[in-house]
Amino acid sequence: MKLWTISGFMISYYLIKTPNTYPPCLCFMHRTLKSKLVTACVTMSLSLFCYHASAQATTEQPNIIFFSFDDLNDFINPMGYSQAKTPNLDRLASAGVTFTNAHTPATYCAPVRTAIFTGRHATTTGAYGTQVYFHEHPDIVPLQLSFQNAGYATYGAGKLFHHREGFIDMRGWDEFFLRNEALKTRGWPMDSWAEDTPLPGEFPVSTYNKNRVEEGSLKKSTTFLEIAAIPIDIEEEMADTKRSNCACSIIEKEHSKPFFLGIGIYAPHFPNYAPQKYWDMYDRESLILPEYTEGDLDDVGKLVRQQKMNRKKVHHDRLEKWGLIPESIHAYLACVSYADAMLGRILHSIQNSNNRENTAVVIWSDHGYHQGQKGEWGKHTLWQRTTNVPFIWAGAGIAKNQKISATVSLIDMFPTFVEMCGLAPDSGHEGRSLLSMLRDPASAQDQDVFVPWLHPNSYAIINEDWRYIHYKDGSEELYDLKKDFEEITNLADSPEYASIKTKMKQSAPSNQAKPGLSANTDLRLVTSGESFHWEPKKKAK
After folding, report:
1. Number of neighbours of residue 119 by Cβ within 10 angstroms
2. Confidence class of residue 3 from pLDDT cuts 50, 70 and 90?
3. Which of 111, 142, 207, 476 is deepest in the core (most CB within 10 A)?
4. At the topology level of CATH, where does 50-449 sit?
Protein backbone atom coordinates (compact mmCIF):
# COMPACT_ATOMS: atom_id res chain seq x y z
CA MET A 1 0.00 0.00 0.00
CA LYS A 2 1.32 3.42 -0.89
CA LEU A 3 0.64 6.34 1.40
CA TRP A 4 0.82 10.07 1.05
CA THR A 5 2.01 11.96 4.08
CA ILE A 6 0.61 15.47 4.28
CA SER A 7 1.83 17.98 6.79
CA GLY A 8 -0.32 18.92 9.76
CA PHE A 9 -0.31 22.50 8.55
CA MET A 10 -1.90 21.51 5.25
CA ILE A 11 -4.53 19.38 6.97
CA SER A 12 -5.46 22.14 9.39
CA TYR A 13 -5.75 24.61 6.53
CA TYR A 14 -8.00 22.21 4.62
CA LEU A 15 -10.21 21.66 7.64
CA ILE A 16 -10.68 25.38 8.10
CA LYS A 17 -11.42 26.08 4.45
CA THR A 18 -13.65 23.08 3.71
CA PRO A 19 -15.14 21.92 6.99
CA ASN A 20 -18.19 20.22 5.58
CA THR A 21 -16.58 17.98 2.97
CA TYR A 22 -16.11 15.28 5.61
CA PRO A 23 -18.86 12.83 6.54
CA PRO A 24 -20.48 13.83 9.83
CA CYS A 25 -19.96 10.31 11.21
CA LEU A 26 -16.19 10.91 11.44
CA CYS A 27 -15.13 12.04 14.88
CA PHE A 28 -12.62 14.60 13.69
CA MET A 29 -15.37 16.67 12.14
CA HIS A 30 -17.18 17.20 15.42
CA ARG A 31 -17.16 20.92 16.08
CA THR A 32 -16.04 20.56 19.69
CA LEU A 33 -12.94 18.66 18.61
CA LYS A 34 -12.02 20.64 15.52
CA SER A 35 -10.01 23.37 17.25
CA LYS A 36 -8.01 20.79 19.22
CA LEU A 37 -7.34 18.83 16.05
CA VAL A 38 -6.16 21.88 14.15
CA THR A 39 -3.69 22.69 16.93
CA ALA A 40 -2.42 19.13 16.96
CA CYS A 41 -2.12 19.00 13.19
CA VAL A 42 0.29 21.94 13.17
CA THR A 43 2.86 19.86 15.04
CA MET A 44 2.28 16.45 13.52
CA SER A 45 1.54 14.85 10.15
CA LEU A 46 -1.20 12.47 9.16
CA SER A 47 -0.96 9.63 6.69
CA LEU A 48 -3.84 9.71 4.26
CA PHE A 49 -4.94 6.98 1.94
CA CYS A 50 -3.81 7.33 -1.64
CA TYR A 51 -5.21 5.01 -4.25
CA HIS A 52 -2.77 2.28 -5.19
CA ALA A 53 -0.81 3.34 -8.23
CA SER A 54 0.50 -0.09 -9.15
CA ALA A 55 -0.21 -1.20 -12.69
CA GLN A 56 -0.31 -4.84 -11.55
CA ALA A 57 -3.64 -6.61 -11.32
CA THR A 58 -5.02 -7.51 -7.90
CA THR A 59 -5.70 -11.19 -7.16
CA GLU A 60 -8.80 -10.31 -5.12
CA GLN A 61 -12.15 -9.08 -6.28
CA PRO A 62 -11.94 -5.32 -5.62
CA ASN A 63 -14.69 -3.37 -3.92
CA ILE A 64 -16.31 -1.02 -6.43
CA ILE A 65 -17.57 2.50 -5.72
CA PHE A 66 -19.79 3.43 -8.69
CA PHE A 67 -20.42 7.18 -8.40
CA SER A 68 -22.59 9.09 -10.86
CA PHE A 69 -23.38 12.77 -11.37
CA ASP A 70 -26.37 14.07 -13.31
CA ASP A 71 -25.90 16.62 -16.13
CA LEU A 72 -22.23 17.22 -15.22
CA ASN A 73 -20.53 18.42 -18.39
CA ASP A 74 -16.81 18.83 -18.99
CA PHE A 75 -16.65 22.00 -16.85
CA ILE A 76 -14.22 20.36 -14.40
CA ASN A 77 -10.52 20.84 -13.88
CA PRO A 78 -9.42 17.30 -14.87
CA MET A 79 -10.92 17.99 -18.31
CA GLY A 80 -9.16 21.31 -18.75
CA TYR A 81 -11.72 23.77 -17.38
CA SER A 82 -10.09 26.03 -14.81
CA GLN A 83 -13.06 27.85 -13.23
CA ALA A 84 -14.71 24.99 -11.34
CA LYS A 85 -13.79 24.46 -7.69
CA THR A 86 -13.59 20.67 -7.61
CA PRO A 87 -10.82 19.65 -5.18
CA ASN A 88 -12.09 16.10 -4.82
CA LEU A 89 -12.39 15.41 -8.54
CA ASP A 90 -8.91 16.88 -8.89
CA ARG A 91 -7.64 14.61 -6.16
CA LEU A 92 -9.24 11.54 -7.70
CA ALA A 93 -7.82 12.37 -11.13
CA SER A 94 -4.31 12.72 -9.73
CA ALA A 95 -4.68 9.30 -8.13
CA GLY A 96 -6.05 7.54 -11.20
CA VAL A 97 -6.90 7.65 -14.90
CA THR A 98 -9.04 10.34 -16.57
CA PHE A 99 -10.61 9.62 -19.95
CA THR A 100 -10.84 13.04 -21.55
CA ASN A 101 -12.70 11.77 -24.62
CA ALA A 102 -15.41 9.66 -22.96
CA HIS A 103 -18.96 9.76 -24.28
CA THR A 104 -22.41 8.91 -23.06
CA PRO A 105 -24.22 5.93 -24.69
CA ALA A 106 -27.39 8.03 -25.16
CA THR A 107 -28.57 11.63 -24.96
CA TYR A 108 -31.42 11.31 -22.48
CA CYS A 109 -31.37 10.16 -18.84
CA ALA A 110 -33.38 6.92 -18.99
CA PRO A 111 -31.68 5.34 -22.05
CA VAL A 112 -28.21 6.27 -20.74
CA ARG A 113 -28.79 4.35 -17.54
CA THR A 114 -30.42 1.48 -19.41
CA ALA A 115 -27.35 1.19 -21.64
CA ILE A 116 -24.98 1.26 -18.66
CA PHE A 117 -26.88 -1.25 -16.54
CA THR A 118 -27.53 -3.66 -19.44
CA GLY A 119 -24.36 -3.15 -21.47
CA ARG A 120 -26.54 -2.67 -24.56
CA HIS A 121 -27.39 0.30 -26.75
CA ALA A 122 -30.92 1.54 -27.40
CA THR A 123 -30.61 0.10 -30.90
CA THR A 124 -30.67 -3.34 -29.24
CA THR A 125 -33.09 -2.82 -26.34
CA GLY A 126 -35.45 -0.32 -27.99
CA ALA A 127 -35.00 1.95 -24.96
CA TYR A 128 -34.57 5.28 -26.75
CA GLY A 129 -36.61 7.28 -24.25
CA THR A 130 -38.93 6.31 -21.41
CA GLN A 131 -38.92 2.57 -22.09
CA VAL A 132 -38.47 0.27 -19.07
CA TYR A 133 -35.88 -2.30 -20.11
CA PHE A 134 -36.61 -4.86 -17.39
CA HIS A 135 -40.28 -4.92 -18.41
CA GLU A 136 -39.56 -5.77 -22.04
CA HIS A 137 -36.27 -7.64 -21.55
CA PRO A 138 -36.49 -9.47 -18.21
CA ASP A 139 -33.89 -11.98 -19.45
CA ILE A 140 -31.08 -9.37 -19.49
CA VAL A 141 -28.90 -9.66 -16.37
CA PRO A 142 -28.34 -6.09 -15.11
CA LEU A 143 -25.09 -4.80 -13.65
CA GLN A 144 -26.00 -5.06 -9.97
CA LEU A 145 -27.36 -8.60 -10.35
CA SER A 146 -24.21 -9.64 -12.19
CA PHE A 147 -22.18 -8.39 -9.23
CA GLN A 148 -24.44 -10.21 -6.80
CA ASN A 149 -24.15 -13.44 -8.80
CA ALA A 150 -20.35 -13.10 -8.60
CA GLY A 151 -20.42 -13.09 -4.79
CA TYR A 152 -20.62 -9.35 -4.14
CA ALA A 153 -22.74 -7.57 -1.57
CA THR A 154 -24.66 -4.91 -3.50
CA TYR A 155 -25.74 -1.51 -2.22
CA GLY A 156 -27.40 1.41 -3.97
CA ALA A 157 -28.38 4.97 -3.11
CA GLY A 158 -29.77 7.88 -5.09
CA LYS A 159 -30.32 8.44 -8.78
CA LEU A 160 -28.72 5.45 -10.43
CA PHE A 161 -31.71 4.90 -12.71
CA HIS A 162 -34.12 7.41 -14.21
CA HIS A 163 -35.55 9.33 -11.27
CA ARG A 164 -39.23 8.69 -11.99
CA GLU A 165 -41.23 6.12 -10.07
CA GLY A 166 -41.03 2.61 -11.48
CA PHE A 167 -37.65 2.93 -13.22
CA ILE A 168 -35.39 1.32 -10.64
CA ASP A 169 -34.52 -2.29 -11.44
CA MET A 170 -35.05 -3.88 -8.03
CA ARG A 171 -33.28 -7.12 -8.87
CA GLY A 172 -29.89 -7.82 -7.34
CA TRP A 173 -29.76 -5.23 -4.55
CA ASP A 174 -29.01 -6.28 -0.98
CA GLU A 175 -29.95 -2.77 0.15
CA PHE A 176 -31.11 0.36 -1.66
CA PHE A 177 -31.40 3.68 0.17
CA LEU A 178 -34.09 6.27 -0.58
CA ARG A 179 -34.14 9.74 0.95
CA ASN A 180 -37.64 9.04 2.29
CA GLU A 181 -38.89 5.58 3.28
CA ALA A 182 -42.44 6.47 2.22
CA LEU A 183 -41.26 6.61 -1.41
CA LYS A 184 -40.93 2.81 -1.41
CA THR A 185 -44.71 2.52 -1.65
CA ARG A 186 -44.83 4.94 -4.59
CA GLY A 187 -42.64 3.03 -7.02
CA TRP A 188 -39.27 4.04 -5.55
CA PRO A 189 -38.72 7.44 -7.27
CA MET A 190 -35.18 8.78 -6.95
CA ASP A 191 -35.69 12.51 -7.41
CA SER A 192 -34.29 15.07 -4.98
CA TRP A 193 -36.74 17.92 -4.65
CA ALA A 194 -40.13 17.69 -2.95
CA GLU A 195 -41.98 18.90 0.12
CA ASP A 196 -39.77 16.77 2.37
CA THR A 197 -36.52 18.34 1.14
CA PRO A 198 -35.20 21.86 1.84
CA LEU A 199 -36.42 24.38 -0.70
CA PRO A 200 -35.34 28.03 -0.97
CA GLY A 201 -38.89 29.40 -1.00
CA GLU A 202 -42.16 29.43 -2.87
CA PHE A 203 -41.96 28.69 -6.59
CA PRO A 204 -40.72 30.43 -8.64
CA VAL A 205 -37.49 31.48 -6.97
CA SER A 206 -35.23 32.24 -9.93
CA THR A 207 -35.34 35.56 -11.75
CA TYR A 208 -35.73 33.64 -15.00
CA ASN A 209 -38.98 31.96 -13.97
CA LYS A 210 -40.31 35.06 -12.20
CA ASN A 211 -39.86 36.93 -15.47
CA ARG A 212 -41.63 34.14 -17.34
CA VAL A 213 -44.58 34.44 -15.00
CA GLU A 214 -44.73 38.16 -15.73
CA GLU A 215 -44.61 37.65 -19.49
CA GLY A 216 -47.29 34.96 -19.23
CA SER A 217 -45.21 32.15 -20.74
CA LEU A 218 -44.93 30.00 -17.59
CA LYS A 219 -48.09 27.99 -17.08
CA LYS A 220 -46.91 25.46 -14.47
CA SER A 221 -44.08 24.74 -12.06
CA THR A 222 -40.79 23.68 -13.63
CA THR A 223 -37.29 23.03 -12.37
CA PHE A 224 -35.73 24.29 -15.61
CA LEU A 225 -33.45 27.26 -14.85
CA GLU A 226 -34.69 27.35 -11.26
CA ILE A 227 -31.68 28.60 -9.29
CA ALA A 228 -31.20 29.77 -5.71
CA ALA A 229 -28.97 29.49 -2.68
CA ILE A 230 -30.04 27.36 0.27
CA PRO A 231 -29.06 28.22 3.87
CA ILE A 232 -25.88 26.44 4.96
CA ASP A 233 -27.39 25.01 8.12
CA ILE A 234 -29.80 22.72 6.23
CA GLU A 235 -27.22 21.09 3.96
CA GLU A 236 -27.52 17.82 5.89
CA GLU A 237 -31.23 17.65 5.04
CA MET A 238 -30.62 17.70 1.28
CA ALA A 239 -31.27 14.46 -0.59
CA ASP A 240 -27.79 14.19 -2.12
CA THR A 241 -26.23 14.79 1.29
CA LYS A 242 -28.34 12.04 2.85
CA ARG A 243 -27.35 9.66 0.05
CA SER A 244 -23.69 10.47 0.48
CA ASN A 245 -23.85 9.95 4.23
CA CYS A 246 -25.54 6.60 3.73
CA ALA A 247 -22.81 5.55 1.31
CA CYS A 248 -20.17 6.61 3.83
CA SER A 249 -21.70 4.40 6.52
CA ILE A 250 -21.68 1.43 4.14
CA ILE A 251 -18.04 2.00 3.21
CA GLU A 252 -16.91 2.28 6.83
CA LYS A 253 -18.54 -0.88 8.13
CA GLU A 254 -16.88 -4.30 8.23
CA HIS A 255 -17.50 -6.43 5.14
CA SER A 256 -17.13 -10.18 4.93
CA LYS A 257 -17.11 -10.18 1.13
CA PRO A 258 -16.40 -7.69 -1.65
CA PHE A 259 -19.05 -5.06 -2.21
CA PHE A 260 -20.46 -3.02 -5.07
CA LEU A 261 -21.78 0.39 -3.99
CA GLY A 262 -23.64 2.53 -6.51
CA ILE A 263 -24.43 6.11 -5.53
CA GLY A 264 -26.24 8.56 -7.80
CA ILE A 265 -25.96 12.29 -7.11
CA TYR A 266 -28.75 14.40 -8.63
CA ALA A 267 -26.62 17.57 -8.80
CA PRO A 268 -25.87 19.59 -10.89
CA HIS A 269 -29.20 18.76 -12.57
CA PHE A 270 -31.81 21.53 -12.36
CA PRO A 271 -33.06 22.94 -10.08
CA ASN A 272 -29.70 24.52 -9.29
CA TYR A 273 -30.28 24.82 -5.55
CA ALA A 274 -27.04 24.65 -3.56
CA PRO A 275 -26.00 25.78 -0.07
CA GLN A 276 -24.81 29.37 0.07
CA LYS A 277 -21.20 28.46 0.82
CA TYR A 278 -20.82 26.90 -2.63
CA TRP A 279 -22.13 30.06 -4.27
CA ASP A 280 -19.62 32.03 -2.22
CA MET A 281 -16.76 30.08 -3.81
CA TYR A 282 -17.25 32.07 -7.04
CA ASP A 283 -17.11 35.72 -8.03
CA ARG A 284 -19.89 36.11 -10.59
CA GLU A 285 -18.46 39.29 -12.06
CA SER A 286 -15.19 37.60 -12.99
CA LEU A 287 -16.62 34.41 -14.49
CA ILE A 288 -15.57 33.67 -18.06
CA LEU A 289 -18.72 32.80 -20.00
CA PRO A 290 -18.96 30.26 -22.85
CA GLU A 291 -18.43 31.56 -26.35
CA TYR A 292 -21.50 31.72 -28.54
CA THR A 293 -21.42 31.70 -32.35
CA GLU A 294 -24.19 33.49 -34.21
CA GLY A 295 -25.61 31.45 -37.09
CA ASP A 296 -24.22 28.20 -35.70
CA LEU A 297 -27.33 26.27 -36.78
CA ASP A 298 -27.38 27.56 -40.36
CA ASP A 299 -25.52 24.55 -41.80
CA VAL A 300 -27.35 21.71 -40.04
CA GLY A 301 -30.30 19.72 -41.37
CA LYS A 302 -33.92 20.80 -41.29
CA LEU A 303 -34.99 18.30 -38.60
CA VAL A 304 -32.54 19.36 -35.95
CA ARG A 305 -32.43 23.03 -36.99
CA GLN A 306 -36.16 23.43 -36.47
CA GLN A 307 -35.99 21.84 -33.03
CA LYS A 308 -33.00 23.83 -31.85
CA MET A 309 -34.13 27.16 -33.25
CA ASN A 310 -37.16 26.84 -30.97
CA ARG A 311 -34.87 26.04 -28.05
CA LYS A 312 -32.64 28.94 -29.00
CA LYS A 313 -35.34 31.33 -27.83
CA VAL A 314 -34.41 30.47 -24.26
CA HIS A 315 -30.92 31.79 -24.86
CA HIS A 316 -31.57 34.80 -27.13
CA ASP A 317 -35.05 35.98 -26.18
CA ARG A 318 -34.76 35.49 -22.44
CA LEU A 319 -31.37 34.80 -20.86
CA GLU A 320 -29.46 37.29 -23.01
CA LYS A 321 -32.26 39.83 -23.00
CA TRP A 322 -32.63 39.67 -19.22
CA GLY A 323 -28.87 39.54 -18.55
CA LEU A 324 -29.11 36.21 -16.71
CA ILE A 325 -26.32 34.18 -18.32
CA PRO A 326 -23.70 35.00 -15.62
CA GLU A 327 -26.19 34.10 -12.90
CA SER A 328 -27.02 30.81 -14.62
CA ILE A 329 -23.36 29.81 -15.03
CA HIS A 330 -22.71 30.79 -11.41
CA ALA A 331 -25.57 28.57 -10.21
CA TYR A 332 -24.34 25.60 -12.23
CA LEU A 333 -20.81 25.92 -10.86
CA ALA A 334 -22.12 26.19 -7.30
CA CYS A 335 -23.96 22.90 -7.77
CA VAL A 336 -20.88 21.31 -9.33
CA SER A 337 -18.89 22.25 -6.22
CA TYR A 338 -21.63 20.89 -3.95
CA ALA A 339 -21.63 17.58 -5.86
CA ASP A 340 -17.83 17.51 -5.64
CA ALA A 341 -18.09 17.93 -1.85
CA MET A 342 -20.33 14.86 -1.71
CA LEU A 343 -17.66 12.91 -3.59
CA GLY A 344 -15.20 14.21 -1.00
CA ARG A 345 -17.20 12.59 1.77
CA ILE A 346 -16.99 9.26 -0.03
CA LEU A 347 -13.23 9.53 -0.56
CA HIS A 348 -12.62 10.40 3.08
CA SER A 349 -14.68 7.42 4.19
CA ILE A 350 -12.62 5.13 1.97
CA GLN A 351 -9.33 6.38 3.34
CA ASN A 352 -10.54 5.96 6.91
CA SER A 353 -11.95 2.45 6.40
CA ASN A 354 -10.48 -1.03 6.46
CA ASN A 355 -11.50 -1.41 2.82
CA ARG A 356 -9.14 1.14 1.33
CA GLU A 357 -6.48 -1.25 0.08
CA ASN A 358 -8.75 -3.10 -2.31
CA THR A 359 -11.28 -0.50 -3.41
CA ALA A 360 -11.65 1.03 -6.87
CA VAL A 361 -13.70 4.13 -7.67
CA VAL A 362 -15.26 5.09 -10.98
CA ILE A 363 -17.08 8.41 -11.45
CA TRP A 364 -19.22 9.30 -14.46
CA SER A 365 -22.02 11.61 -15.58
CA ASP A 366 -25.02 10.43 -17.56
CA HIS A 367 -24.44 13.17 -20.15
CA GLY A 368 -23.11 16.68 -20.48
CA TYR A 369 -25.05 19.92 -20.68
CA HIS A 370 -25.20 22.82 -23.12
CA GLN A 371 -25.09 26.27 -21.58
CA GLY A 372 -25.93 28.31 -24.63
CA GLN A 373 -23.56 26.60 -27.06
CA LYS A 374 -25.41 26.14 -30.35
CA GLY A 375 -28.20 28.11 -28.72
CA GLU A 376 -29.09 25.18 -26.45
CA TRP A 377 -29.65 25.14 -22.70
CA GLY A 378 -29.98 21.45 -21.98
CA LYS A 379 -28.93 18.09 -23.42
CA HIS A 380 -30.63 15.71 -25.89
CA THR A 381 -28.25 16.61 -28.74
CA LEU A 382 -25.64 14.60 -30.61
CA TRP A 383 -23.06 17.36 -30.20
CA GLN A 384 -19.99 17.61 -28.03
CA ARG A 385 -21.56 19.44 -25.09
CA THR A 386 -24.07 16.62 -24.57
CA THR A 387 -22.00 13.53 -25.29
CA ASN A 388 -18.59 14.32 -23.76
CA VAL A 389 -18.68 13.41 -20.05
CA PRO A 390 -16.36 13.14 -17.03
CA PHE A 391 -15.05 9.58 -16.61
CA ILE A 392 -12.37 8.88 -13.98
CA TRP A 393 -11.14 5.60 -12.48
CA ALA A 394 -8.84 5.20 -9.49
CA GLY A 395 -7.91 2.41 -7.11
CA ALA A 396 -6.23 -0.94 -6.79
CA GLY A 397 -4.45 -1.97 -9.99
CA ILE A 398 -5.14 1.32 -11.79
CA ALA A 399 -2.41 3.65 -13.03
CA LYS A 400 -1.91 6.97 -11.29
CA ASN A 401 -2.19 10.56 -12.57
CA GLN A 402 -2.76 9.64 -16.20
CA LYS A 403 -4.99 11.02 -18.95
CA ILE A 404 -6.21 9.03 -21.94
CA SER A 405 -7.48 10.81 -25.04
CA ALA A 406 -8.60 7.65 -26.85
CA THR A 407 -12.35 7.64 -27.46
CA VAL A 408 -14.33 5.48 -25.04
CA SER A 409 -17.97 5.06 -24.00
CA LEU A 410 -19.72 4.66 -20.67
CA ILE A 411 -21.14 1.44 -22.09
CA ASP A 412 -17.61 0.08 -21.67
CA MET A 413 -18.02 -0.03 -17.88
CA PHE A 414 -19.95 -3.30 -17.73
CA PRO A 415 -17.38 -5.30 -19.79
CA THR A 416 -14.60 -3.70 -17.73
CA PHE A 417 -16.19 -4.93 -14.50
CA VAL A 418 -16.58 -8.38 -16.02
CA GLU A 419 -12.82 -8.60 -16.48
CA MET A 420 -11.80 -6.67 -13.36
CA CYS A 421 -14.18 -8.30 -10.88
CA GLY A 422 -14.77 -11.76 -12.27
CA LEU A 423 -18.38 -11.23 -13.32
CA ALA A 424 -20.01 -13.69 -15.69
CA PRO A 425 -19.28 -12.82 -19.34
CA ASP A 426 -22.27 -11.71 -21.42
CA SER A 427 -22.09 -12.12 -25.18
CA GLY A 428 -24.69 -9.38 -25.55
CA HIS A 429 -22.44 -6.63 -24.18
CA GLU A 430 -21.70 -4.04 -26.84
CA GLY A 431 -18.81 -2.19 -25.19
CA ARG A 432 -15.20 -3.20 -24.67
CA SER A 433 -13.19 -3.75 -21.50
CA LEU A 434 -10.97 -0.81 -20.56
CA LEU A 435 -8.94 -2.75 -18.00
CA SER A 436 -5.76 -2.95 -20.08
CA MET A 437 -5.86 0.85 -20.57
CA LEU A 438 -6.44 1.42 -16.85
CA ARG A 439 -3.37 -0.65 -16.01
CA ASP A 440 -1.24 0.63 -18.88
CA PRO A 441 -2.53 3.93 -20.36
CA ALA A 442 0.16 3.85 -23.03
CA SER A 443 -1.61 0.86 -24.58
CA ALA A 444 -4.80 2.85 -25.27
CA GLN A 445 -6.06 2.72 -28.83
CA ASP A 446 -8.70 4.94 -30.38
CA GLN A 447 -11.99 3.56 -31.64
CA ASP A 448 -15.26 4.71 -33.16
CA VAL A 449 -17.91 5.26 -30.47
CA PHE A 450 -21.60 4.97 -31.27
CA VAL A 451 -24.20 7.27 -29.68
CA PRO A 452 -27.85 6.70 -30.63
CA TRP A 453 -30.31 9.58 -30.48
CA LEU A 454 -34.02 9.56 -29.57
CA HIS A 455 -35.18 7.22 -32.34
CA PRO A 456 -33.74 4.65 -34.77
CA ASN A 457 -31.44 5.74 -37.59
CA SER A 458 -30.40 8.93 -35.81
CA TYR A 459 -26.97 8.68 -34.22
CA ALA A 460 -23.42 9.99 -33.91
CA ILE A 461 -20.13 8.21 -34.56
CA ILE A 462 -17.19 9.78 -32.73
CA ASN A 463 -13.43 9.24 -32.64
CA GLU A 464 -10.46 11.43 -31.78
CA ASP A 465 -10.49 13.10 -35.19
CA TRP A 466 -14.10 13.24 -36.35
CA ARG A 467 -17.75 13.42 -35.34
CA TYR A 468 -20.24 12.13 -37.88
CA ILE A 469 -23.97 12.63 -37.25
CA HIS A 470 -26.83 11.03 -39.16
CA TYR A 471 -30.50 11.87 -38.67
CA LYS A 472 -33.54 9.83 -39.67
CA ASP A 473 -34.48 12.41 -42.33
CA GLY A 474 -31.19 11.69 -44.10
CA SER A 475 -29.44 14.91 -43.07
CA GLU A 476 -25.83 14.66 -41.97
CA GLU A 477 -23.14 16.55 -40.09
CA LEU A 478 -19.39 16.06 -40.06
CA TYR A 479 -16.93 17.93 -37.88
CA ASP A 480 -13.14 17.95 -37.88
CA LEU A 481 -12.55 17.79 -34.11
CA LYS A 482 -8.84 18.54 -34.35
CA LYS A 483 -9.56 21.90 -36.00
CA ASP A 484 -13.14 22.56 -34.91
CA PHE A 485 -13.73 21.13 -31.43
CA GLU A 486 -16.82 23.29 -30.87
CA GLU A 487 -18.35 21.91 -34.10
CA ILE A 488 -19.08 25.19 -35.82
CA THR A 489 -18.49 24.19 -39.46
CA ASN A 490 -20.44 21.26 -40.89
CA LEU A 491 -18.35 19.53 -43.59
CA ALA A 492 -20.88 16.83 -44.49
CA ASP A 493 -21.77 18.33 -47.88
CA SER A 494 -18.15 18.70 -49.02
CA PRO A 495 -17.29 15.97 -51.59
CA GLU A 496 -13.71 15.72 -50.34
CA TYR A 497 -14.96 14.20 -47.05
CA ALA A 498 -17.28 11.61 -48.60
CA SER A 499 -14.91 8.71 -47.89
CA ILE A 500 -14.68 9.69 -44.21
CA LYS A 501 -18.46 9.69 -43.91
CA THR A 502 -18.70 6.32 -45.62
CA LYS A 503 -16.10 4.80 -43.31
CA MET A 504 -17.68 6.16 -40.14
CA LYS A 505 -21.19 5.06 -41.12
CA GLN A 506 -19.91 1.49 -41.13
CA SER A 507 -19.60 1.67 -37.33
CA ALA A 508 -23.36 2.11 -36.88
CA PRO A 509 -25.45 -1.03 -36.28
CA SER A 510 -27.07 -2.24 -39.48
CA ASN A 511 -30.20 -3.37 -37.63
CA GLN A 512 -31.66 -0.88 -35.17
CA ALA A 513 -34.52 -1.93 -32.91
CA LYS A 514 -37.83 -0.11 -32.98
CA PRO A 515 -38.72 1.84 -29.83
CA GLY A 516 -40.32 -0.29 -27.13
CA LEU A 517 -43.38 0.53 -25.06
CA SER A 518 -43.10 3.95 -23.47
CA ALA A 519 -43.81 4.49 -19.79
CA ASN A 520 -45.34 7.82 -20.78
CA THR A 521 -47.93 6.54 -23.23
CA ASP A 522 -48.03 2.74 -23.40
CA LEU A 523 -47.54 1.44 -19.85
CA ARG A 524 -49.10 1.99 -16.46
CA LEU A 525 -47.39 1.48 -13.11
CA VAL A 526 -49.03 -0.87 -10.59
CA THR A 527 -47.84 -0.68 -6.99
CA SER A 528 -48.45 -3.14 -4.16
CA GLY A 529 -46.82 -2.28 -0.84
CA GLU A 530 -43.14 -1.78 -1.59
CA SER A 531 -43.34 -3.70 -4.86
CA PHE A 532 -44.37 -2.53 -8.30
CA HIS A 533 -44.65 -3.71 -11.87
CA TRP A 534 -45.61 -2.28 -15.26
CA GLU A 535 -48.59 -3.33 -17.35
CA PRO A 536 -49.44 -2.37 -20.92
CA LYS A 537 -52.36 -0.02 -21.30
CA LYS A 538 -55.27 -1.35 -23.32
CA LYS A 539 -54.33 0.53 -26.45
CA ALA A 540 -50.76 -0.78 -26.21
CA LYS A 541 -52.03 -4.37 -26.09
Report:
1. 26
2. very low
3. 111
4. Alkaline Phosphatase, subunit A (3.40.720)
